[in-house]
Specification:
Layout lengths: L1 H19 L2 H14 L7 E3 L3 E8 L3 E10 L7 E6 L4 E5 L9 E9 L6 E11 L6 E11 L1
Parallel strand pairs: 2-8
Antiparallel strand pairs: 1-3, 3-6, 4-7, 5-6, 7-8
Length: 145
């Protein structure tokens, strides 16, 4: 019994050590530094910030993609990408977007979480930019039975 307890303690310590060294943790630490260092802020241009997905059947998952460009002279980082409801999940460019290059925010809207009818949802994007540091992306559409 003592041996099992020791084994569980060792495994717990090892798993915790692995969890604390994940790429996401490193990314969060890097973003915290970038977010506070205003001398490294840049400029962003959203190439499309409002989308209409048209009509979807109730239960469909709708893919929406937004594109942005770094129009400044420093690397651009998306620090946070937060959908405003649980019916939408988002993915985004997690690495630095160098000056002149483009990045993306991808959203998947699950129409099963809502009710049929008109839809208007948003995603709040925070970046290390002088302009539009907290930008709201939006999409609309219609869900039918």
């Amino acid at each position: 019994m003592k041996y099992l307890l020791v084994i569980f303690m060792i495994l717990g310590t090892a798993l915790n050590a692995c969890k604390n060294n994940t790429p996401d943790r490193h990314l969060r630490q890097e973003h915290e530094h970038v977010e506070k260092d205003t001398s490294n802020f840049t400029r962003i241009q959203w190439l499309d910030s409002m989308k209409n997905f048209g009509t979807a059947k109730y239960g469909d998952k709708v893919n929406i993609e937004y594109t942005f460009k770094n129009i400044g002279d420093k690397p651009l980082y998306l620090l946070s990408v937060q959908p405003t409801c649980g019916c939408t999940i988002a993915d985004y460019t997690k690495s630095a977007v160098m000056p002149g290059n483009q990045g993306y925010v991808k959203a998947i809207y699950d129409s099963h979480h809502g009710v049929p009818g008109s839809v208007r949802k948003s995603i709040i994007v925070t970046s290390n930019t002088k302009n539009d540091a907290n930008f709201v992306l939006a999409f609309t559409g219609k869900v039918v039975k």
